[in-house]
Design brief:
By secondary structure, the chain is mainly alpha-helical. It is built from three helices and no strands. The chain is 58% helix and 0% strand.
Length: 66
């Protein structure tokens, strides 16, 4: 799961979320999640890589919607 902010999110707010409170990180970890700070550019690049990989899986398995 990825939490994404709108493009209009101010830099200070983005920075505050990026450096999440240790208590929040601990609760997330206990719930099975891992908080990994990143940049919008790094997230966009990862999403592009993952989308390309999953497109190949879907095509190879001949998966269709509906």
């Amino acid at each position: 799961m990825r939490l994404c902010n709108p493009k209009s999110t101010s830099s200070p707010l983005y920075s505050a979320r990026k450096n999440a409170d240790p208590a929040i990180r601990k609760r997330a970890f206990e719930a099975g999640a891992l908080v990994v700070p990143s940049t919008p550019e790094a997230l966009a690049a990862r999403m592009e890589r993952e989308t390309a990989a999953w497109v190949e899986v879907v095509r190879a398995a001949n998966i269709t919607a509906g």
